[in-house]
Amino acid sequence: MAGFILRRALLVLPSLLGLLVVCFLLIRMVPADPAVALAGDNATPAQIEAIRRSYGLDQPIHVQFLRYLEGVARLDFGQSQFSSRPVAEDIAQRLPATLELTMAALLISVGLGVPLGVLAAVNHNRWPDFVLRVVSVAGVAVAAFWLAIMLQIVFAMQLGWLPLRGQLSAGLTPPPGPTGFLLLDSLLAGRFDLLADALRHLVLPAVTLSLGGLATITRFTRAGVLDTLQKDFVFYERASGYAPRRLVWIYVLRNSVAATVTQIGLLFGGLIAGAVVVESIYDWPGIGSYTVQAILTADSKVMLAVTLLVGLIYAVVNILTDVAHALIDPRLRDRA
Amino acid sequence: MLVLRKFLRDIPAVLGAVIVLGVVLLAIFGPWIAPYPEDASASHLLRRLRPPSAAFPFGTDNLGRDIFSRVILGARGALKVSLAVVGAAMAIGVPLGLVAGYGRGILSEAIMRVTDVFLALPQLILALALAQLMGPSVESAMLALALTYWPFFTRIVHTETQRLRNALFVDALQGIGASTPRILFLHILPNILSPIIVRATIGLGFTILVAAVLGFLGMGATPPDPDWGLAVAQSRGYLPNAWWFATFPGLAILVAVLGFNLLGDGLRDLVDPRLRRSR
């Protein structure tokens, strides 16, 4: 098993390098002179020239790339233009908030999606199936930014049940905590008031972010269970008098989730990208809102670092997905 | 005709086809259908933020413009962007997929590795970054989306071409000395058209959605365009009182994207009976 994981991990390195090259080229090839942008509107040609030299922008592109690569190897992504802090520091500070949000969304997607998918499959072509099918297609078609605003209008502005934005109410300070994860730190510090407040702030963003994944997981679970239900072993077990509920929720489900597990892996990448929109609407202090700020200010260092980070997360999740497959289906361990 | 009858029995797919037809008709005839076609750019400050009524079924916005008219007028922009993006992505992705799937050399390997890298990129983030660097406008949004969408076509065409590479008819064509471009574009391409069409249909819906996100974040359409995403962004200063301002343009996005997705799903079932619905 350890060898399997190691082999998969090594396969990721070339694609990460490719990711870096592509991002670097795309962002540098775009017809805008970064030195002019950095210098501001009233700069003289001499000032622009000085900036170009101090940032190494006068060097050939491959030299610039190698210098960038050298920095990346030391986790030095340069300095953000709008926060004037090292990009790596900003990201390290904001990553926990995004991970908390995406994990919560993933939990909702899987926790609701798998049972709903089974429900739809068991009731194949009866009304629960029809309802869930329409809802799951609509779930992929809804614009997250619009859903977020609708939820804000209803649950925050009109009913006042949940907070409108942010991660914590004004006036509360997060615990200095060891992990940087707000929920975890509040729990460790025994501050249950903070924990409750943070959880209330988490509900709307997590629900918004989870919807697309919920729809996908429901669809794939339904298709998988429908397939398995027609297998001979189900027929046999039914004939042997297994309790129908136990049969469906344990034996059938275990044999149906392969495609769903792949989807969960793919979803994670989508969740991080979706967080860009959701975080900026709910003012969530994570990577997503940071990315939007960077894009609005054309901060190419931050954009490069975030794209690489998302690519890296994507690659790691892909490895974990393969490992999960191997755990579910022992036949896969010998291949690859 | 058997195919048509089979399609007509699939109610969700027919619903999708009706919606898509509706969006296309609105896009073509919008200015003649909308009750206040001049509200694409005019403003009437005396009737700002009116709630829905008989005269203004979806209410009016912050500049007193009829939201119903602007939702209708927005169809043209949404469809134009998605057609251009999917068209450009196909123009890049399909030939690359054909070449990569047919050949066995280093070129085909290189194309697929680059495609994989692009598929691993966060599409939305990259599109946003490119749109900003090229200067926010509808044109740069379209270019950015096309540059991030082509790999989906390459991957699908690659798989299908590889499947056909060893088919008997390709062998025969090689035997009588047909040129490679001739085999690829006149013989293989027509045989793999259906999965491309299915992907394109779903891609049209997806592009409407992503273009709306770009518009919402100020990286796509610019005022006073009657863009759906932009309208939702403009409504944010007037909530929750002017709820209709945010609700109806967002519903328009939902319905349009839903239509393309349902139609795409239905076409896929039709083209490939092995894949059952909802897969």
Short description:
The complex is a heterodimer of chains A (336) and B (279). Helices cover 75% and strands 0% of the residues of chain A.
Describe this structure in words.
The complex is a heterodimer of chains A (336) and B (279). Chain A has 336 residues and is an all-alpha fold. Chain A folds into two domains: 2-73, no CATH class; 93-335, MetI-like fold (Orthogonal Bundle). Chain A contains 14 helices and no strands. Chain A has helices spanning 2-29, 34-39, 45-54, 61-73, 87-122, 127-141, 144-158, 182-188, 192-229, 232-239, 244-254, 258-282, 287-296, 300-328. Chain A starts with a helix and ends in an 8-residue tail after the last helix. The model of chain A has no long low-confidence stretch (mean pLDDT 81). With 279 residues, chain B is mostly helical. Chain B has one domain (2-25, 66-277): MetI-like (MetI-like fold). Chain B contains eleven helices and no strands. Chain B is elongated, with a radius of gyration of 22 Å. Chain B starts with a helix and ends in an 8-residue tail after the last helix. At the A-B interface, helix 1, helix 6, helix 7, helix 9 and helix 12 of A face helix 4, helix 5, helix 9, helix 10 and helix 11 of B.
List keywords for this structure.
heterodimer, A: 336 residues, mainly alpha, 14 helices, B: 279 residues, MetI-like fold, 11 helices, 0% strand, elongated
Tell how many strands the DSSP assignment of chain A holds: 0
**Strand content bin of chain A:** under 5%
Give the number of helices of chain B. Answer: 11
The CATH class designation of the largest domain in chain A is Mainly Alpha
Shape of chain B: elongated
Order of helices and strands of chain B: HHHHHHHHHHH
Mean pLDDT of chain A: 81
- Total domain count of chain A: 2
Q: Calculate Rg of chain A over CA atoms.
A: 24 Å
The average pLDDT score of chain B comes to 85
- Give the second-level CATH assignment, the architecture of chain B: Orthogonal Bundle
Distance from N terminus to C terminus of chain B (CA atoms, Å) equals 26 Å
- What string gives the helices and strands of chain A in order? HHHHHHHHHHHHHH
